[in-house]
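re: ur question from earlier - yeah i can do the single chain one, its not a big deal. heres the input i used so u can compare w yours
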Amino acid sequence: MAENRTAPGDALQRWWERVAAGGTVDRAALDAAIEQGWRTVDSGAGGDLEERQLAVAHQDRWERDRACFADADRAIALWRRVLGRQPGEGYAALLCGRLLAFRAERTRDPGDMAEAVRLADIATRALDDAGSWYVSGWAHLVRAFSGGQPDGLGEALSRFGTALRRGPDDNLRCVIVRDQLRASFSRYGQGRLGRAELRDLVEGGHALLDAPGDADVPDQALLAGTLAMIEIGIAAPEGRASGFARCRALLARYRDVELPDPHLRAELDSAQAQLDHFAGTSGDRDRGVTAVGRLAASDRFSPDQRDTIAGQLALMRTGRAVEEGDLAALDTAIEQLRTGPDRAARALAAALTSVREAGRLAEAGDETAAAAALARARRELPGDDPAAEVLGVMLAHLTGGRSPVGGDTPATAAVRFTALAAEVRAAAARGDIATLRRLAATAGPLADRIPDAYPMLKVPALSTAGTAEVEVARRDPADHAAAARATARLAAACALAGGPHHALWPQLAIAHGHALRLGDRPDRARSRATGRSALLALTWQALVQADTGRALEAAAAAGRHVRTVAAWCAEDAGDPAAADDLVAVLDAGRGLALNAATASRSMPERLAAAGHPGLAQAWRDTGGAGGTPDDNLRVRALHALTAGSDVFTAPGPAEIRRALSATGADALVHLVPADDARPGMAVVVPVAGRVRVLPLPGLRAGHAPTGWTRAARDLAPAGGGGTAGGHAFDEVCRWAWTAAMGPLTELAEGWHLRRPARLVLVPTGALSLVPWHAAYDGRHYAIERLVISYGVSARMFCASAGTPPRSPRAALIVGDPGGDLPHAAAEARAVHRDFHPAGTLMPHATAEDVLTWIAEPGRGPSLLHLACHGYVDRDRPADARLALAGGDLPVLRLLAHARSAGLDLDRVVLSACSTGAAGSLHDEAISLATAFLAGGAHTVFGSLWAVPDADTAKLMYALHHQLTVRGRPPADALRLAQLAMLEPAREPLPDLPPELSTAGTAGPQGWAAFVHMGR
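and the output i got, formated as tokens:
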């Protein structure tokens, strides 16, 4: 071993001599040099030279991957020793100041920042070369960005200018120009640097890359990334697509270059992702997110580097989620920014949250609050993040701050449309045609100043301009020129948007449809088709969401748009095709969140049929979630399906007729309530013959008993003839007859069927809470003359009609899991004993028990009977739940299960309160009963309000008797059981077991609560 210890400083000296001669040293030799150098220094045998050499060695090792900041810390400590002996020594001050600036950039330590600036100034006085002036400028830049001292930007720019005049080599020139551009762009965003001056600096950067000399490729690549980010920051507010083309070409030069430090690639990918966000396609955004996602997971990075990349990744995810309309992905991305370790990222998350709030307030018409939220967003933006700088420049326009762009640019034109849109809405609400004409005359030329190649600004501008013209033409039908201008501008907006996947498509298509109905040559058929495409877009937006709660949020505007397009169809009654369109339109906005759950389960089959087996298998493997957090499988799958796929389109009359024939029903009937502009109507699709539109002027939603949803099975509407929710039960039943069921019964009796007609009712809006089968003419209930079933939508009715009827061979029966419904317990025991003795009686079943039983394979045809409490809050129907032992079974959990595996059930009997009540989101029809139906159950029985415990037990026993002993179809079985409760002498009850026969009949409120849905 003696030969290895004869000269302790030899390894360090040999490393120094080789590096000084321009050679390279491998990592092992460098590690050995550092180890032996410390032995020399610690033993006291080393002097000033050895400390300098050791400091440089540590700095060399840190520079190789910048992963071990311990090397930087040790080098700083060694340089401080040297400077303690020689305070004005320029080389030591230069290297120590540079390392301190690097460290301060990440730690934001104000002491390090101040010392870096001081040492760099010493170096400039001692050395006065390009390197020392650059480090001085960079130290000021770090203090400006990371230390919150923006005045330091001016000092940084002055020093960078001096460094360039000192003749740096090609590599250092690239580095100086890059940081010069970063500082200049920040000053530009503050309004303290003119656009022409910034443009000169940018052109200088491009010239340097065009003739890079001996500059290393990594340094060129970093400069290219910074140039691209700044080009985006200039072009985005101005709406100059040509600037984006230049950025794309710039980044393409370095896309396939092998870079020694993967962090450099992350910076380039960040610039690419920003470019793709502003001017790319969905595929471009996927590429950027995927590339940086791989970098974020790489073990080649230090924790600090991974944090930085994670922040960039969260930004990219945010942009993609906005474009795709994926609400859950957007919230996740913002949360990743908010909870990350980087202060700038957290500030950016707060700003983005405020931007989202501003959008929501603007949609609600509160422009003042929206402007305040945007102003708050701008204040919350960090000052040291390039992406935040870009956003800050654009927010400056929106919040009325000083615009560095200045002048009459496309960006300033686009921002003016924010105010114009609000003015158009307000003038339209007042019916102020003079103001509307003025706004239309202003908006049209203003929209023309935004280039077509920049759709992010152009589409909403054309929408506002076209809408203003529509409002003029609607109020002045003789103004054919306004109608023509409206049609042209909105057609152009739709062309730029590209199709129903665009976030603004519903509003665009509805406005375009309005325009097509105006002028001297209206195109009503095209208007209806355009309106239907708006509803297709709403379906798209619901389907792209990963869960039912988000689908409900995305589909919130469906009802308003459906009513508009349905009115167009009703106005065009002279066109035979209009009635068929009306059927599809009414169904298009129904149950979008439920449809999303059903479609999610069947998506693999649809994708395979469309020729995409790879996507189909990926969906099966992941349940539609994608293989990684950044795999937007749902979006890719929806793009892969054609616009005519049944996952998007609502069924038309032909498909409905096939379903009616399969189930033995005679007609499907949409019940549409009146509003201030038009009467109510029944849209009847018979099993044979043409669609009928039956005017129903008295059909108003205000008569619906919306207070009838109570919270326990042992409660019911008060009294035998009392009121519930302010409406007497018999009054509502009489109204239901005159408003709808009387005319419908008369229509059905005209079919001369020699039996009760079988109707499937699809009530819309608040009409879904009305017991139409209990409509009363003073002598008879509708149930005595008709067989009535209910549907969420024609789409779901057609889906259930495609399943063949089967008699259950397996059953799970749950009764009184909470121990406070004695008749429910007796009901469950009797149903198990007398009708399904081979089934499973589980009195105290938990939610997990029920879901596990449902998912058990190989059971064959099955039945689920739940006699328990049901709860629904009509203001939050998605919170509906069944009370089981140990906890609740929420409706959203059922639908989450349905999105992946589906519910293998033939019949579901929900013998509980309000299980069919849809709450206030009526067009979404979310309830416990519809959740089972959407989940795959073929037949579901549920209730519209709270039901009495004893009489419900009798009705359920009679229902199972009709189903099992007499073999009746489900809708007939419920009807006959209800008739037996209504008038036992006419339709006798079965022999009841003693434990169920003691209670009397409380009146129609008990039997009338229950409805049949599905097959």
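Confidence is low (pLDDT under 50) at residues 1-8, 384-407, 706-726. not sure if urs matches, ping me
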